[in-house]
From TrEMBL, chain A:
Residues 452-641 form the Cullin family profile domain. The lineage of its organism: Eukaryota, Fungi, Dikarya, Basidiomycota, Agaricomycotina. This is Anaphase-promoting complex subunit 2. GO terms for molecular function: ubiquitin protein ligase binding. SUPFAM superfamilies: Cullin homology domain (SSF75632), Winged helix' DNA-binding domain (SSF46785). InterPro entries: ANAPC2 (IPR044554), ANAPC2_C (IPR014786), Cullin-like_AB (IPR059120), Cullin_homology (IPR016158), Cullin_homology_sf (IPR036317), TPR_ANAPC2 (IPR057975), WH-like_DNA-bd_sf (IPR036388), WH_DNA-bd_sf (IPR036390). The keyword Cell division applies. Belongs to the cullin family. The keyword Cell cycle applies. Gene3D superfamilies: Cullin Repeats, Cullin, Chain C, Domain 2, Winged helix-like DNA-binding domain superfamily/Winged helix DNA-binding domain.
From TrEMBL, chain B:
It comes from the Eukaryota. One of its GO terms (cellular component) is anaphase-promoting complex. The keyword Cell division applies. One of its GO terms (molecular function) is ubiquitin protein ligase activity. This is Anaphase-promoting complex subunit 11.
């Protein structure tokens, strides 16, 4: 029963299959014609060896078509396809052999041409094996998929590198007048025998045929990125005086867009279509241009700022790029790093730091008007400047347009405006905008935009500036001897606008003291002509002046007293209190054989006055007489020795030279560092005080070098430490020794110092 | 040797001649008993020291900024007395600047 059913079932299937293959033909004639058709079809589809032309057979297309028809009626096409693909798999070694051949060639020569030829060869293979289109798209697409899978699996790893080279070479190919031989298919078709519209067209067509465009899409894009990067770096590096972004965009339109048409818009039938196809990828490349330029300018930012304002176009570029590419934080990081490395170190002048800071302010305001970038970059600079001792002095000096310090920080053309204070938020402001998204918590939109206000705001209070300004003004006014201080007056007027009238009230008093002094002096001179012209100051309104207790001797005292008396007559309520050590005296010294003119500080004048009563003096004696310390006395004596008026007869024993003496060359003069007569300013700087004291130590150094021969700097420093009150650093000593070397007193060799004999 | 002074630019400070202080005094000097500002400074209402903010001497030998004292005298509670010793204020005419009204 069961067998019966099984049997009938098998028999039904058999009959069914037989009928399918026999297609209802009489007898088995259908079966025979089917096997004939199968043979023809498989032979026709069989993947031939391209290298072996003998295997080619001519098939009549009618026969082939009839065979396929037969197979189709028998519903055997799927089986045929399987058979074909299996045959292809077996024949694949032929293609593989070719791939290996070309790849070896490429690796040997390193030239992308081999890759190009390989692609064309693969296209040939693909076309040779391709089934005719009449067989339907199913077979064709199955074939294409299989073929592509086979070749992809056969590509060695070096292929992608080679393919990249090949794509890179297409940039030159676009503009070639005629394509090089390797860029043409091996069998030019009759229809394209005339030069193809574009030299690179065949290559791109080949790539598309092989499906390489989709597979290597990111690689192709990366080639273009690299091409753009190379161009940007080549043309824009260190070129800041021209807006490069415009040039770059022109270049993109001229060079890159035509190239892009091939890989990205080959199918476009007209310009309109091409444009829409290129839009997406084009904006990606434009972005990359911006990004590359932005990166470049970010790397260069420190030097760009140094070059400001010549580098303004570069800053404009950077601004535009930053709007497109969000690289603001990179810019901040880079600039902060550069500042730390190149600016904020002990080797940089405070003046230079300030100049660069001002440039940074101007540049970053240009790039980012709200000032978020500036706020982030400026913070370390401001912190650093706050720690520098001479920052205020530098700022003040540039505020009053210090002539000697060269270019001022302040642009002459900028309007002078009052210092801006932090403003309270205006909650009723209709135009209020939120702070930029990357602003820090301490950021305030309405920070001062004026450069001077920014500089002054480094410090919490502007009182420090006013104080420093006062010192500077005092120094200048006291140095004025010809009564011309118009410049100072003008500066104060300008500064009043900035700091406000009240803050500079003290300076106003100082200026009035100058005027009053002149008026008083005119009056006194009318009553009794005198060589003395004092500047009479209001104490409490001037910075602390040096005090000293000595009294002018002899005729000086008389003149002082006479003047004070006249003053008291003129101003009965007031009296004068002399600051004897300040000011300058112009002297004429008549000696037996010569007359010497000198302009000296009062102490020097006093000393020489003492010598007019007695020919020889001891230092201690002089110091006691003048009520000054020995150092000061020696310094004054040195001045006169330089002028050849005095002579050190014995140690610390000085004699007046009524008759000039030929200085024995090289012996006496060597015994001390040469003294430059300096104008002693009323408010001594710390540095100068130290230099003066250092001269005292010269005697020690000289003794050391005489007794011990050549010594290293460390050794000298070590020995000097034993001297009382010596507190110099080794750097200061080195500076001093260097100065002595310039004077020709010592020589140095291999770090060992010795006396110059 | 003969030393001849051709030109001498000196620096000096002026002081009020109050008759009290030592001529060599380098300290802060005396202060006005009313505003506690040094005599050589100026009273709180003035900006310029010196003739613009003069002193006033009393018979009692006390000295003040003129403006300070006048303001004090102007108040009812002063009873026209010197603020230091409560004696009736009498200005020592001799010392007042001739240019000033008082």
């Amino acid at each position: 029963m069961t067998n019966q059913a099984l049997y009938s079932q098998i028999s039904a299937k058999w009959n069914n299959s037989f009928n399918r293959l026999n297609r209802g033909e009489p007898g088995i004639s259908g079966l025979l014609s089917f096997s004939q058709a199968w043979r023809t079809a498989t032979a026709f589809l069989y993947p031939q060896d391209l290298n072996d032309p003998s295997s080619y057979k001519e098939y009549s297309i009618q026969d082939v078509r009839a065979s396929f028809d037969t197979l189709s009626k028998s519903k055997m096409l799927p089986l045929l396809m399987e058979n074909f693909l299996e045959n292809m798999r077996q024949q694949q070694y032929l293609v593989e052999r070719d791939i290996q051949k070309y790849m070896t060639e490429y690796e040997a020569a390193g030239s992308a041409e081999a890759i190009g030829r390989l692609l064309f060869r693969l296209v040939d293979w693909y076309k040779a094996w391709s089934p005719i289109p009449e067989l339907g798209t199913t077979l064709l697409s199955a074939y294409t998929l299989a073929f592509q899978t086979y070749i992809y699996s056969s590509f060695p790893p070096s292929f992608s590198r080679g393919f990249k080279d090949l794509i890179a070479s297409t940039f030159d190919l676009v503009n070639a007048s005629c394509p090089p031989p390797w860029a043409l298919p091996s069998e030019p078709q009759a229809s394209t025998s005339a030069a193809p519209p574009r030299p690179d067209l065949p290559l791109w067509t080949a790539c598309e045929t092989l499906g390489l465009l989709d597979r290597y899409e990111s690689l192709i894009a990366s080639v273009c990125y690299e091409y753009i990067e190379a161009h940007v770096l080549n043309t824009c590096a260190k070129k800041w005086d021209d807006s490069m972004l415009v040039c770059l965009r022109e270049w993109m339109a001229e060079k890159v867009v035509p190239w892009m048409v091939m890989p990205y818009a080959r199918g476009a039938r007209n310009a309109e279509e091409a444009r829409s196809m290129l839009q997406g990828v084009g904006s990606r490349f434009d972005y990359h241009v911006c990004k590359t330029l932005c990166d470049l300018r970010t790397q260069e930012i420190f030097d760009i700022i140094i070059d400001y304002p010549d580098s303004q176009p570069a800053l404009q570029d950077l601004k535009e790029c930053l709007a497109r590419v969000d690289q603001r934080s990179e810019l901040v990081t880079t600039l902060r790093k550069a500042n730390k490395k190149r600016l904020l170190h002990p080797g940089a002048d405070t003046k230079d730091i300030l100049t660069q800071y001002v440039s940074i302010i101007r540049c970053l305001r240009l790039i980012d008007p709200p000032g978020v970038l500036l706020y982030k970059v400026a913070d370390p600079i401001r912190k650093y400047l706050r720690e520098r001792p001479d920052t205020i002095r530098c700022i003040v000096a540039s505020l009053v347009g210090d002539g000697e310090s060269g270019d001022s920080l302040v642009d002459e053309n900028e309007p002078i405006q009052p210092l801006q204070q932090k403003q309270a938020d205006d909650f009723a402001d209709a135009n209020w905008e939120p702070e930029p998204i990357d602003a820090g918590p301490n950021f305030r939109t309405n920070r001062p935009t004026d450069v001077i206000s920014t500089l002054v705001s480094i410090y919490d209070s502007k009182d420090l500036f006013v104080k420093e300004l006062q010192v500077l003004l005092a120094q200048r006014l006291l140095a004025v001897t010809d009564g011309n201080y118009e410049r100072e007056r003008r500066n104060i007027e300008i500064l009043k606008i900035r700091f406000g009238e009240a803050a500079l009230q003290v300076c106003e008093v100082m200026l009035r003291d100058m005027t009053d002094s002149r008026r008083i002096d005119q009056h006194v001179q009318q009553q009794k002509p005198m060589p003395l012209h004092p500047t009479i100051v209001s104490r409490h309104f001037w910075p602390p002046l040096q005090t000293s207790s000595f009294n002018m001797p002899g005729q000086f005292k008389e003149i002082q007293d006479a003047y004070a008396k006249e003053f008291h007559i003129f101003k009965p309520d007031k009296k004068l209190h002399w600051l004897p050590h300040l000011g300058t005296i112009s002297l004429e010294i008549e000696l037996q054989d010569r007359t010497i003119n000198a302009e000296v500080p009062p102490l020097e004048a006093a000393i020489i006055e003492l010598f007019s009563s007695k020919d020889t003096w001891d230092v201690a004696e002089l110091a006691a007489e003048m009520k000054v310390d020995k150092t000061a006395a020696i310094k004054a004596l040195l001045t006169w020795m330089d002028l050849g008026v005095l002579k050190e007869e014995d140690v610390n024993h000085y004699k007046l030279l009524e008759v000039a003496e030929e200085a024995p060359a090289g012996t006496k003069t060597v015994s001390r560092p040469a003294v430059v007569i300096e104008e002693v300013s009323a408010v001594l700087t710390v540095q100068r005080q130290q230099a003066e004291q250092m001269k005292v130590y010269w005697n020690f150094i000289e003794g050391m070098l005489t007794n011990l021969g050549a010594l290293s700097l460390q050794r000298i420093q070590g020995m000097l430490k034993f001297a009382s009150g010596y507190d110099r650093t080794i750097e200061q000593l080195a500076e001093f020794m260097e100065a002595a070397r310039r004077e020709g007193l010592v020589t140095v060799k291999d770090g060992m110092w010795k006396l110059h004999r | 040797m003969k030393v001849k002074i051709k030109k001498w630019h000196a620096i000096a400070q002026w002081r009020w001649d109050t008759g009290h202080n030592d001529p060599d005094d380098d300290g802060e000097g005396d202060v006005c008993g009313i505003c506690r500002v040094p005599f050589e400074g100026c009273c709180p209402t003035c900006k310029m020291p010196g003739e613009d903010c003069p002193l006033i001497w009393g018979e009692c030998t006390h000295v003040f900024h003129m403006h300070c004292l006048l303001q004090w005298i102007g108040t009812a509670s002063s009873k026209q007395q010197c603020p230091m010793d409560r004696r009736p204020w009498v200005t020592a005419e001799r010392k007042v600047d001739a240019n000033n009204p008082r």
